[in-house]
Description:
Radius of gyration: 22 Å
Number of domains: 2
Amino acid sequence: MTKSNFQLELRTSPHVKRGVSVERIMLHVVLALLPVAAFSVFQYGLSALALLLTTTATCLLAERGINRMAGRESTLGDWSAAITGLLLGLTLPPSFPLWMAAVAGLAAIGLGKALFGGIGFNVFNPALVGRAFVQAAFPVAITTWVPAFSAERFMGFIPTTFTAPLMTPPDITAWAKQAVDGFTGATPLARWKFETYFTPAQDFISGAATASAGESTAVLILLGGLYLAARRFLDWRIPVAVLGSAALVAWAFQLYDPARYPEPLFVILSGGLMLGAVFMATDMATSPVTPKGVWIYGALIGVVTVMIRYFGGLTEGVMYAILIGNACVPLIDQYTQPRVFGAQRGKA
Length: 348
């Protein structure tokens, strides 16, 4: 009787099902973001291009510099810093001065990522950490808006783009009104909150609505999310929970007072909710890993976003809602762990 060459290996979880590396996943996220970035350049011209290049380059340089100072191997090849730079640029106004954008990039990588130990160890989404930092540091500049599709957008830069470091940006209200007749200088959320004006849904679809560089491209954001979900590089349950819970809360408020509260479609398409739900809340390092947890996490972000918009002092609440959701992830994971096979609930 001969011995069999068959060998049985027993391994503990996690069990790898696909040969997909972090680098490959991140590269596909970058590819999904490129159409959104390209459309923002088409909307706002040279200043939007300079903004995206500045935030991305700053994040890459900060990543390289911090790794070198720490004596670690370069991690530029994993594309995570590039994603942070692109997302950060898409959350900023096209008129944002480039030196402030560079500060945001340094804060995103330094405070949002490196401080926690690098990729996979960060508690909060790095791009939102960078934006939160500059929102506190430069509140006027980050709430200064310019019209989309200006006739001069490819002929020159917005006057505030090359503001000297540590100098106050010039007032561009007159320039913006001259660029587009009837420009109000307010985002759709601000016009609704302070003027009870409901921006038509087609303005969000076409990109005509005043917003940050990547906020008024809902169709492209959704297509990018569908692409990542189809490749299983994104947990589709998170954006569905975020957008679904926000729509449900908005629908309830509209039933209560339709003259005051907007319809759910307005809530979903306005501001950064779509971009945040698809590309930021789904960050693998800062979102739950349990099946129940992702639904709770997404619902929390959607509800908090609407509550801040409706009752807070700010017109937008997506950034803070996602950061709050990130902070709750350890607790959500702890209380939504599946029961161990053979064990009783409530017992270790």
